[in-house]
Write a structure and sequence with these properties.
By secondary structure, this protein is an alpha+beta fold. It has helices at residues 15-33, 35-38, 62-71, and strands at residues 3-9, 42-48, 53-55, 58-60. The protein has a two-stranded parallel sheet. Strands 3-4 form a two-stranded antiparallel sheet. The radius of gyration is 14 Å and the shape is elongated.
């Protein structure tokens, strides 16, 4: 069945926020695919170590990601 993988920077989201992400992504997928497929949908959050991610040629750290999150 479907497997959805989400990559985030470590230390940016709390356990409760990750739970909400998993719930909401699953619900969004089910709104298109249906409830039968929802029951077999797997969502995995992979946390990337601070400094091991780059965007537009710049290294991203947990601190930078937290600043981005605060801006909304």
């Amino acid at each position: 069945m479907p497997s959805i993988e989400i990559q985030i920077m470590e230390g940016v989201f709390s356990d409760d926020e990750k739970r909400q992400i998993i719930e909401r992504v699953t619900d969004a997928f089910a709104s298109v695919a249906g409830q039968t497929i929802k029951a077999g949908t797997s969502v995995r959050i992979q946390e990337i170590r601070s400094g091991s991610w780059g965007y537009a040629g710049n290294q991203i750290t947990t601190e930078i990601a937290l600043e981005m999150k605060q801006k909304g």
